[in-house]
Specification:
The protein has a two-stranded antiparallel sheet. The protein is mainly alpha-helical. A hairpin with a 2-residue loop joins strand 1 and strand 2. The chain starts with a helix and ends with a helix. The longest helix is centred in the middle third of the chain and has 36 residues. The protein has 14 helices and 2 strands; from the N terminus they run ααααββαααααααααα. The protein is elongated.
Length: 324
């Protein structure tokens, strides 16, 4: 836990330096991004004072970290604006608080990640196990060929292809996004193709990883001992071999799920989903530094938490971790 907190502090400091300190060193004033190019020096100075950009760097960073926990007041002359905690500041383009924009986009990314994760873990691991048990068979060759295609084909290709076939050509799926609270049926339809497209990419990697791990584990001495004791093949595979296979799968899952929760940029852009990924793309195009910073910190938080959970699950799956 301490390591996670320290990592988040380092990420916060690094991102703050990249977005607010380095532009100054390069001769670019972040205040200009807020007011635009066509403005007068008085307006620029007012924005610089309101955002605290005139303060020393360490003071700016302290105010930024403090705002994440207790909020912050932005003052410009007689005008005082209160930003409730957690406060990532105000968008340079809309002049709205960044945090509500993040919380509005976060459920979309969470639902995308959860549905796709369920599909790729179940499908990928199952395909990898069956391929390992039937090594060299027609199923093995077909599954690994499909897995190779899944790893090789980019999201924007498979996404546009699935939209062209199932939505535009056949009309089976209406891709118009709707929030779950407004219309659960429409929400499910709008998320189905993104789930399948994203799961196809990740399931391919998990199938190859599971197959390689299972083939290695099936040759271990303790597997031969379990079979020599008269245990059924089903028990040997499910109770002994699968337990060791889950260790590398969990390692990869922690990295993938954490990064995915930070924003599946290509998938959300392809299917026009209003999640963190598309929010980040729009912010980058508009040079909206506070929004980019907010998405970056949310992504870092999810990656750290996901890896922490994976480390905790290691002890449940592999008793050797507890003994160590």
């Amino acid at each position: 836990m301490f390591a996670v907190i320290m990592m988040l502090l380092v990420v916060t400091l690094t991102t703050f330096v990249i977005f607010f300190v380095l532009p100054k060193w390069a001769g670019q004033d972040p205040a200009l991004l807020f007011v635009g190019k066509q403005t007068d020096p008085a307006s620029i100075e007012g924005i610089r004072e309101k955002l605290g950009l005139a303060d020393p760097v360490l003071v700016q960073f302290w105010h930024f970290v403090q705002a994440l926990f207790v909020g912050r007041e932005y003052s410009s002359g007689t005008d005082v604006t209160q930003c409730a905690a957690p406060c990532f500041g105000y968008s340079f383009r809309t002049e709205q608080e960044v945090w509500p924009q993040l919380t509005e986009a976060l459920p979309v990314t969470l639902s995308l990640a959860a549905g796709a994760c369920l599909l790729w873990v179940v499908g990928g691991v199952a395909a990898g196990v069956v391929s390992a048990l039937r090594r060299g068979s027609l199923w093995d060759r077909m599954a690994m060929t499909i897995a190779l295609a899944g790893v090789s084909l980019p999201i924007y290709f498979t996404g546009l292809l699935s939209l062209a076939i199932f939505s535009f050509q056949l009309g089976w799926i209406d891709g118009e996004f709707a929030a779950f609270g407004d219309d659960p049926g429409q929400w499910f339809q709008s998320m189905l193709l993104p789930w399948i497209t994203l799961a196809f990419l990740y399931a391919a990697m998990y199938a190859r990883l599971t197959r390689a791990s299972m083939l290695e584990i099936l040759g271990e001495d303790y597997i031969r001992t379990a079979r020599a004791k008269g245990l059924t093949e089903r028990v040997v595979i499910s109770k002994h071999a699968m337990r060791s296979t889950w260790t590398p799968v969990l390692t990869l899952l922690g990295l993938d799920l954490g990064a995915l929760l930070g924003g599946a940029i290509l998938t959300e852009s392809t299917y026009n989903l209003p999640g963190l990924g598309r929010l980040a793309v729009d912010a980058i195009a508009q040079k909206d530094l506070p929004v980019i910073l907010g998405v970056t910190l949310i992504a870092a938080l999810f990656i750290c938490v996901a890896n922490l959970l994976v480390d905790m699950l290691y002890a449940v799956i592999d008793p050797r971790v507890r003994l160590g």
